[in-house]
Amino acid sequence: MANLVARRWTFAELKDMNVTSQMLLLWSATTDLAEQYAIFLINVLPAEQRFGDLSCRRFNATELGNTSSYDNLEGLIINIKNRFRTCLNTKSELHSCNYSNMYQCQHSAKCISQQRLLDGIQDCPWNDDELFNESCSLADIHQRFQCSKGDDKKCFAALVVRD
C-alpha cells in the first residue's frame, strides 16, 4: 500500500485500478484533487469545443442516435436520462457551498448566489432555484417583491418584475 501511495499515478491509471475518489481522500489527497478525479470518472462525453466563453458539443457526439428514429418523445427522454445519468452529482462531503450567501443546487455540486433564486432564469439542473420555498427569508429580502396566493408567499428577484 505504501508503494501505491508514494508513486505518481495518472487519473487513467487510477481508474484502471478501480480507485475511487474516496480512496484518494483516505490516502491524504486534497479535496480538490479528489473532486477533479470524481469529475474525471463521470466525464462520459467526448471532448468539448470552445467558442469564446461557451462550451459546446455536437448533438451527435452525445451518442443519442438519430432523433427522428424515436417513436415518441418519451423514448428520447429515457435515452437522454440513461446517457447522462452519471453526470448527475449528488451533494456530498466532497463539495458544498462554503458561504452563507450561496445556494447549493439539488442533486448537484453547483453553487449559485442566493440573489439568483426566483429570478426567472433556471440556473440549477433541476430548476430548484426557481421553485425555492424560503425566498422571503433570504438576506436580500429588501431587494425582492413579495407576492401572495392564499397562504403561499414568494419573494421574487427584481429581475422578474417587469414594468
Can you characterise this structure?
Keywords: Disulfide bond. InterPro entries: LDL_receptor-like_sf (IPR036055), LDrepeatLR_classA_rpt (IPR002172). This protein is α+β, with helices and mostly antiparallel strands and 163 residues long. It has a domain at 1-43. It contains five helices and six strands, in the order ααααββαββββ. It has a two-stranded antiparallel ribbon with strand order 1-2. The protein has a two-stranded antiparallel sheet with strand order 3-4. The longest helix has 12 residues, at 31-42. The chain is flat, with a radius of gyration of 21 Å. The protein starts with a helix and ends in a 6-residue tail after the last strand. Mean pLDDT is 73; it is low at 86-93.
How is this fold's topology laid out?
Blueprint: H1 2-6, H2 11-16, H3 21-26, H4 31-42, E1 49-51, E2 54-56, H5 73-84, E3 102-104, E4 111-113, E5 144-149, E6 152-157
Antiparallel strand pairs: 1-2, 3-4, 5-6
